[in-house]
Amino acid sequence: MKKLMVYLDDETHEDLRQLAFRKRTSMAALIRYAVDKTFEDELDIAAAERALEEYASNPNAAITLDEYLEKRGIVLSSAAESPGRARPGRVAEGRRPSYRRGAGRSKD
After folding, report:
1. What is the DSSP letter of 108?
2. Helix (H) or strand (E) holding 69
3. N or C: which terminus of the chain carries fewer CB neighbours within 10 A?
4. In degrees to the nearest 10, what's the CA dihedral of 17, 22, 27, 33?
5. Over the stretch 24-57, which tens digit does the pLDDT of each residue have?
């Protein structure tokens, strides 16, 4: 973890200090959370670009999905191994959706 110095005006600092006290956390944790939530998408893009550059510089270091799953001890069951599992995309036939406009309302 790296250290970063941030300057805040007195009022913001005091408000942040009180908020941290009420939430029983540190001011730094509140700042990290705010940065993460504010820039979440941009930070994800930056991390993905960094990972892509790393892969491009050494593609032989990458592992396959099967190798990853095996390393993590994850076993995926196939649809054939799951009898009684509902088929995807099937909808009850002959039933009208209850969310239709005016459904269930009396005409007063």
Report:
1. -
2. helix 65-72
3. C
4. -140
5. 999 999 999 999 999 999 999 999 999 999 999 9
CA distance 47 to 54: 11
Quote the percentage of the chain above a pLDDT of 70.
72
Of the chain, the percentage scoring pLDDT greater than 90 comes to: 57
What is the pTM for the complete model shown? Answer: 0.53
Please list, residue by residue across 60-92, b when 16 or more beta carbons sit within 10 angstroms of its beta carbon and e when fewer do.
Answer: eeeeeeeeeeeeeeeeeeeeeeeeeeeeeeeee
Residues comprising the chain, all counted: 108
